[in-house]
Predict the 3D structure of the following.
Amino acid sequence: CTSAQRIIAELIPRYALYCPTALEAAAKVAINMYDCNLLIMLRGEDTDGIAFQTAQACVFGLVDICNAASTVAPSSSVIGGICSAVFLNVLTFFISTFEGKNIYEASDLELEKIEDSKDFFAKLKQAMEENDTSVSEKLFFFRALSLIRIFVYCPRRVLSACFELLDSIDIGVQKGGFYFLRQVTSLIDAQDSELHLDKLDNRPTLTTDSVLANTNCNHLAEDELKTTNEHLPDKSLSASSSLMEK
């Protein structure tokens, strides 16, 4: 029953933290429910929108499950293995759903806002829900938003899972790991570029006094440069002589 799955999708992540040994199973259940409800939508049978709501809840539930796995103290090797399996399964799931598409261009996310503001995630979610786009586009955005949020809050865990993919003997699995690394680096590069542009936009306006001050500084710098250049040949010759003697 889709209505029952809708309720389960909300409850599983909420109580997963209280049972660390069930975290891996909780992640698998959320992934399986997402796949089942996605098929319902693809067949055009989601007339009441419950399948979409369930799939959406499963995606966001994976964020909560990963957060729970990252906060669990590794009291034993078994618990540590379960938490590692959670991140590996969740990362593999997200990678498979993106089908090689660019996450950053589709989501237009900002790492700093996701990291600094707890409300930013909820605002983005609400904005996309109200946006007049297709269901598939909304789900793609929610998946991208969720994966990036997991990476921001649990970078070591996610990268560790990524390295496991890269270490696999399966070529397809390896490609998934490389795909994720490309997405992460492109996202970080884009953020660095935007930060650089912001700094350029915030440069102080040039005035007559500042121009004169910069001119005086430039003259001083030129004098120092001339003095340095005059001694460069002597330094180069002495360095060459010492090398030849050795």
Remarks:
- The two ends are 84 Å apart (CA to CA).
- DSSP finds eleven helices and no strands in the chain.
- The mean pLDDT is 77.
